[in-house]
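Morning!

This is the sequence you dropped in the shared folder:
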Amino acid sequence: MKPLHLTILALWILTGTTATFASPSNIGPFIGAWQAVDPEDGSLQTLTISRNDDGTAHLLIHDTYFALCNGDRGLGHGTGLLSQAKTMSVSDYRLTCFSSGISKGGPTTLTLNRNGTLTRILAPPSPAMTYFRYSR
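The structure's back. Tokens below.
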């Protein structure tokens, strides 16, 4: 009888422990290529989200016009962690301008909406952006 109790206890501990960690399958709905129109300047922004080996997400953002870069090219990137069922937090988001080397960072949040879009919220006063998936 004791071995059975130990087996049940071990299974309970393993099941309870592993369920609290984000697994790669949890970020599946975020994976893909997304596009949005920046409400501040009307530029086209592309957000690519891919899966890292550790279950986090890699975010890469291209824009046709980065205001921070005075219209020059730049690249935004960060690592996303699932914080709730349909919300991903990116604490290390950073935009870097290619020519000037200017770099600015701050947290951002991505939320999956019921209609299949993705909302990205930056720190105020930046407005929220709504992305539409165009590729998986």
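Headline: The chain has one domain: 25-135.

More detail when I'm at my desk.
O.
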